[in-house]
Write the structure tokens for this entry.
Amino acid sequence: MSSNVNEKEKCKKRKKIPENDSEIFLKGMVEVIKNFTDSQDKRMGALIDKIGNRDQSDLRDQIYSIIESPIFELYSTEQRIKATMVLCDDVKKMELFIRMGELERQTMMFMIINDKL
């Protein structure tokens, strides 16, 4: 009888071993997936930042081109620099200025130069 009891204990132990291996495997896979997604999050974050910076750079380029155009030639260099700095300091102002017509841009430029914006 004691040999039967030992055989049953061995059988029970054998059944648990594959479960433990499965659990170990799953825990390992979870860790691998977690590390992978963490590294991808960092990469995606950096990529998103680069895209955002590139968008702002494009907006600034458009602002520079507009302010350097003949439409604003009546303004001094100092006034143009001031307007550019004020506009490029705020993405919403840049976007608004770019979408405006000529008259609105002139008005906005006047407001910036006279500290009304």
